[in-house]
Amino acid sequence: MNYTTEVKEGILFINLQGDLLGEQSGLELIELINNKINESITYSAIDLGGVRYMNSSGIGLLITVLTKFRNKSGEVILINPSEQIKKLLVITKLNAIFTIVNNTDEAIQKLRAAGSR
After folding, report:
1. Residue 103: CA count within 13 A, CB half-sphere
2. Most Cβ neighbours (<10 Å): which of 4, 46, 47, 67?
3. At what angle do helices 56-70 and 24-38 cross, to 10 degrees?
4. pLDDT tens digits for range 23-50
5. Distance CA 44, CA 36 (A)
6. How far is CA 36 from CA 40, 60, 76, 110, 117, in A?
7. CA distance 49 to 18
8. pLDDT digits over 95-110, tens only?
9. What domains does the chain contain, in order, with CATH numbers?
10. What is the DSSP secondary-structure string of 25-42?
11. CB of 56 within 8 A of CB of 20?
């Protein structure tokens, strides 16, 4: 898995590419997220459009990220998962836990709405 990150409008955007298997790069991503949370960033949008495959460790990584942000009264939104990843989210019932949107603009709108509650 490869990833890029960008902070825009107080939101941490994470763009994942490849197979989400929770390997070493997953640990690096968690460390980066901890640093951003310490910088008072409590919202994140994860673009899954480039993820081809996700195993149980990848699912665990997404849950860990969500837990870290929600523990700080934040939120995580998933952007543009492929049909295969959507099916996996439905099978695991994670579609009921994560907000899933089609694009970055929708993610920004939903996170702004969450921040104004």
Report:
1. 1
2. 46
3. 10
4. 788 899 999 999 999 999 999 999 999 9
5. 10
6. 7, 20, 13, 20, 22
7. 10
8. 999 999 999 999 999 9
9. 2-115 (3.30.750.24)
10. HHHHHHHHHHHHHHTT--
11. no
